[in-house]
Amino acid sequence: MGLAVYIEDQNHRRVYAGREAGACLEAILPHVEAGALLAGVHLHGDTMFNSPQLMRVTSELDLLAERNFDAKGDAAKVKSILDGVVRRRGYVWISGD
Q1: Cβ-contact 3, 26 below 8 angstroms
Q2: Contact (CB, 8 A) for 94 and 46
């Protein structure tokens, strides 16, 4: 099944971000450095990030894209989603299977 990514607003109303969001996130996780917030995302568990954490995650994605050309496209797609969530001061919930 894989990861499912959901976007939540400030009142925690949840919207599915789409199958591609989960697939892109799964593709970049093997390239994430230990100690990064994204390193805490597990394929079989749930993870939630708030807006301040998402700002750090987007910086992690920028570094990942610079250091790993193969993950650049997937990192850009995930970052695009997260940037929109930060602008709306929302949350991202990641559900593993």
Answers
A1: yes
A2: yes
CA 64 to chain centre: 13
Q: Which strands make up the sheet holding 4-8, listed edge to edge?
A: 14-16, 4-8, 91-95, 46-49
DSSP letter string, 32-74 = PPTTSGGGG--TTSEEEE-HHHHHHHHHHHHHHHHH-GGGHHH
Q: Percent of the chain beyond pLDDT 70? A: 99
Q: Which residues contact 27 (CB under 8 A, 6 or more apart)?
A: 71, 74
- Please name the residue that has the structure tokens 């450095």: 33
What residues contact residue 5 under an 8 Å CB cut-off, 6+ apart? 16, 17, 18, 21, 22, 25, 81, 92, 93, 94, 95
CA distance 6 to 39: 18
Q: Whole-model pTM?
A: 0.92
